[in-house]
Amino acid sequence: MMDATQMQDTDKKNKYDCYENGRFCGRIWSAPIIFSPPELKERLDSFRLEGRKIADLKLVGLNYCLSYDHLEALLLKDTDGAEQEIDYEKHIGLYAEIDEPMLIRFEDGDVLEILEETDGEHLVSMNSIPWEIKAGTNLPNIDASAFFKDCIGRTITAVELHICDLSERENYFQPLNASENQTDFVKYIVLRFDDGNGLRFSGWLDFCNVDYIDHNNNFIEKTFREISSAFFNLDEIINDMLNDEC
Prior knowledge:
Elements: H1 4-14, H2 37-46, E1 54-59, H3 68-75, E2 76-78, E3 84-86, E4 91-93, E5 95-98, E6 102-106, E7 111-118, E8 121-126, H4 144-147, E9 156-165, E10 184-193, E11 198-204, E12 207-213, E13 221-223, H5 224-227, H6 234-242
Antiparallel strand pairs: 1-6, 2-3, 4-13, 5-12, 6-7, 7-8, 9-10, 10-11, 11-12
């Protein structure tokens, strides 16, 4: 006979979207695209995020801004000799550029799934994507629980919606999904923590930017040495950089 916790876990699994072969697919994800500020606020309020403590984080897919080519440009430095070396003291912002959701698991087992499709278009859901989901496009290169480890154990004290006039929206190539009387949009969402820092989510082109920010909304940085353990296959990456003849 199952106890209360097992029954709760089973109930959550029964509510997951059905992904073929355990791989993420945006067409299957049940989260609606929300552009209206009141609709977004209502949906986020329904999740009762304030007071929840973060237990774990996951990036379903690739963090593009720290892919191989970007890392090579950031980290390789010339020495007095002919060879190059890795700059382990290089400061790197704790941010991600993704096109598949970020998952945030709370102490009670609930999981928030969040993604921005473009400037002001938000997708958020709760307990719709299984934690074990695999990438649908490009394999992940970052262990988010290590990269954003300072977020773990933090409690959400506020969900901030930063609203701008519709005229400030960057349209790019996507159609505008606004009602006739809509005059503003949510530029970005911030999950503010009990230490004043936060995670900020915003759209750019068809990517979602996830930024770890301080109480003044400035990027938080760490040295590559401090975050290197968050990279999958790090030894292979460094070896390729140092032996790349191109």
